[in-house]
Amino acid sequence: MLNFFYGLLQLMRPLEWSKSFGNMLIAAVTAGIIMQANSGFLMTAGLDTTRFLIGFASLALLWSGLYALNDYTDRKADALHPEKKKRAIPSGKVPAKTALAFSIILVAMSIIIALYVNQTGLFLICVLAMLANQLMYTLKPFSLKKRPVVDLISGSLINPIFRFYAGWVLFVPAFNAPIEVLLFLLGIQFGGFGLYRMYSKEHEKKLGLKSSVVVFGGKSLRRISYVALAIGGLSYLYATFSVLRISYLFLGLAMALSLPFYKKGLKNPQSIDHDKTYHVIYLQYMIFLAGFLLLYWFGI
Prior knowledge:
Low-confidence stretches: 37-46
Number of domains: 1
CATH class: Mainly Alpha
CATH architecture: Orthogonal Bundle
């Protein structure tokens, strides 16, 4: 029984919630700064902590359901992968049909919460847009994750945009966030996703997939990822002068001190200890988010 519940937790991928939380938090804090709400976390200028947390709960449930669905559709291919075979379904912790039902329940709960927190209708649009995009990414006849170019666009551009705007429209009734902040997130997440996909190059080639990493090769995808990461970094630099505050520049520089740790992974993503790097990245991301929030909280 414990194995089963652990398997359900695996399907939900709670570490991945940091993507939604981070994009939403950066969007909400940016809105707070622009509205000169500097006297507490989301407590002034019409910003509300409770609304933010309810909105985040909706996205956490949505993505847990979508990850469970992805694991269901990929269960046979995952069983052949040296690392992914440890996932809940191929390892036998959770029966495939149970995982599918669990996925549907989580997505339904997400939509119900979105309807509750939704006021202008824009938050619900974000939720439904991510749902539609991910269904096309995962399911036939679209299966975007198996198609070159669109696999990268769908997986690492469309989703981050709507994760970000899910946090923004909770407090600002328009899709009008500063482009430099959005470009920062898109550049970093697109670049990181591109490098991550290289880890599965040989596996996807064996399966006969026509994904970007198979069609264009590791060298081309690595270069594209470098450019995206550079755009993200420069956009953050610009945002610290145009939208945020100079204190956020020092936060970014502090985070950049860890770059030597990623040197090997940037040169050859396929050679890294995937699990170790995965956990270090998410730990660093949470430290960055804590710093991002604290600078806003204390009005620094």
